[in-house]
Design a protein that fits this description.
It contains 10 helices and 8 strands. With about 300 residues, the protein is of the alpha/beta class. It has an 8-stranded parallel sheet with strand order 2-1-3-8-7-4-5-6, with helices on both faces. α6 links the parallel β5 and β6. α3 packs parallel to α4, α8 runs parallel beside α9 and α9 runs parallel beside α10. The radius of gyration is 18 Å and the shape is globular.
Length: about 300
């Protein structure tokens, strides 16, 4: 893993169903994320927060979609910034913001991987697969669409920006799923996405599927992007998210995943998405996300003070 990290805040909340994600990047900074990374021996460059698009061009789309024009403008802006960070020599960490940010980060890092002639793999840690196209999202909240878009699925043409480098669905592993709509279930089956819902994790644990996935990344000499949504976690330990779903990953399960990723040395970029400080309890979730990031960057259990 590269020893220079770049931090970029993406204060988008146009894709979420409630306000507050706009404060996510600064909450992670307030919780000490840059200093935590430095204490692990990394250099850190903080590029601040992307500014909200001003007067976005009008975009036509299905009438039930919320904040469509602003979200489309955000996606273009995030894509360009993510590509610039991923094309460099550092390890980019993208601080969200609602998970619509992944429409830009996934396509940006995929473009950088293609430039380097490497396949991009994605570990998607989320209660939701975010595999809706524009017509199938019943809520109209666009944070349910980024993975479908990044995979190059039909249903975005003429609305979202074109995807030059779609991600191969066979290079995606999803863990923690427990809120999947019928339309998304069909997509998972049709595309053959490696999807681990919480029942499968309860039965088999996280070690076996993650080990198999990491072996595939290594064999392909691939780049690995981790997209970590707060609602991957059990709401009792991480309340600061607008889409809480009971039965999420435990503290130890999440740490084990992060520690295994650190051991692999394969991760090349990271999203931290859907942190809503307005819903937090004395910074509990922001501190927890910083702790998991530290594990991903190499902090060990024996390094932790009780």
């Amino acid at each position: 893993m590269k020893k220079q990290c770049s931090i970029l805040g993406i204060s988008i909340e146009s894709g979420a169903g409630r306000g507050g994600c706009v404060m996510g990047p600064d909450a992670l900074r307030t919780a000490g994320l840059p200093d935590i990374i430095r204490d692990l021996g990394y250099g850190v460059t903080d590029f601040g927060n992307l500014t909200r698009p001003v007067d976005p061009a009008h975009v036509d789309g299905p009438a039930h979609l919320k904040n469509l024009s602003e979200t489309v403008a955000w996606i273009s802006k995030i894509h360009d910034a993510a590509y610039a960070r991923a094309a460099g020599d550092d390890f980019p960490i993208f601080l969200g913001g609602d998970h619509t940010m992944a429409a830009g980060t996934l396509t940006g890092v995929a473009r950088a991987a293609a430039d380097a002639k490497q396949p991009l793999f994605v570990l998607w840690l989320d209660a939701h697969p975010d595999l809706h196209i524009l017509e199938t999202t019943e809520s109209g909240n666009l944070h349910g669409t980024p993975m479908a878009y990044a995979l190059g699925q039909d249903g975005f043409d003429g609305v979202y920006p074109p995807v030059a480098t779609p991600i191969d669905p066979k290079n995606v592993t999803m863990m923690g799923l427990r809120s999947v709509d019928p339309a998304e279930t069909v997509v998972i089956k049709d595309l053959g996405i490696d999807a681990w819902d919480m029942r499968r994790i309860d039965e088999d644990g996280v070690r076996a599927p993650l080990t198999a996935f990491l072996e595939r990344v290594k064999a392909a000499n691939g780049r690995l992007h981790v997209s970590f949504d707060v609602d991957f976690l059990e709401p009792e330990i991480a309340p600061a998210v607008g889409t809480t779903v009971p039965g999420g990953a435990t503290f130890r399960e999440a740490h084990l995943i992060m520690e295994m990723l650190a051991d692999s040395g394969l991760v090349t970029s990271l999203d931290l998405a859907e942190l809503n400080p307005f819903l937090d309890t004395r910074g509990k979730t922001a501190n927890l996300m910083c702790d998991f990031t530290a594990s991903l960057l190499g902090k060990r259990v024996l390094d932790r003070v009780t």
